[in-house]
Amino acid sequence: MKRLISAKDVLDAAKEHKDLTVDKNTIVTAQAADLAWENGVLLVSDSDAQESSSKGCAATKAPEAHEDAIASCGATKEQEPVLTASQIEEIMTAAVDKGLWTADELQSLLHGNAPATQELPPVTVGVSNRHIHLSQEHLEQLFGKGHELTPIKDLSQPGQFASKECVTLVGPKGVIEKVRVLGPVRARTQVEILAADTFKLGVPQAIRLSGHLEGTPGITVVGPEGTVVLPEGVIVASRHIHMTPEDAARRDLHDGQVVSIKFGGERGGQLDEVVIRATRTGALDCHIDTEEANALHIKNGSVVEVVK
Ligand SMILES: [Zn+2]
């Protein structure tokens, strides 16, 4: 069984001031070997490790002492590699082909997991107005049996669209008309309104991520063919940034992490409590609602800075 020493292993070892043991079954990537050299991590061969402990070989970690240490300990940089560079490349390519690694993960491995900030695309903003997602059952209750949504505009997330259909929200204190239905249909109906709408409609404010509907207020939804009384499902959406797990890793972020976004200009400012939503199909986009956007003069497509 071959063991791979990657750039990351070397950097981890450097952090902990440890050396790495190599034997004939260990593959050291070229990058790892270079990093070991730069960071003063000794690649001690298995037999030498035993020897050096019995002989008390005093290897120091300073890079300039490294060469001497290697020479005196007998761990060689010139040692015959177990695999050739092209064999290693072949193994890595096969791993990507078989889906064991994504190309991005391999890239990040080869670069010691250092986020390549200069190559990262900027985080742009998608501004949402109030809208509703419907279940198929509720769609048919509101628009008639067998009704299907008519897409009029694609949204930033793959497959999501704004539809021609609109509904009216009726709360205990007021009514809001022309609320856009977003498609495709979902498992559960969800109403996303602005904070000011909660006062107009007379419903409590439940700030939630999409899909977290337990304990949220309900509302009455009116369509051209019928009415649905929702016992729950009305939220003011938590601001969030969509991205893939690979993109999150490159930015040193992870799913569920809470960050801030910063925006300059005349009404510039910072919004905290922005949740990272890293999903396989996530397209990089920061979602805030029209109130949040207006407060900072942010428009659709504005670029924001992510602050950890
Ligand atoms: Zn979103």
UniProtKB/TrEMBL annotation:
<dbReference type="GO" id="GO:0016747">
    <property type="term" value="F:acyltransferase activity, transferring groups other than amino-acyl groups"/>
</dbReference>
<dbReference type="InterPro" id="IPR008300">
    <property type="entry name" value="PTAC"/>
</dbReference>
<keyword id="KW-0012">Acyltransferase</keyword>
<dbReference type="Pfam" id="PF06130">
    <property type="entry name" value="PTAC"/>
</dbReference>
<comment type="similarity">
    <text>Belongs to the PduL family.</text>
</comment>
<keyword id="KW-0808">Transferase</keyword>
<protein>
    <recommendedName>
        <fullName>Phosphate propanoyltransferase</fullName>
        <ecNumber>2.3.1.222</ecNumber>
    </recommendedName>
</protein>
<keyword id="KW-0479">Metal-binding</keyword>
<dbReference type="GO" id="GO:0046872">
    <property type="term" value="F:metal ion binding"/>
</dbReference>
<keyword id="KW-0862">Zinc</keyword>
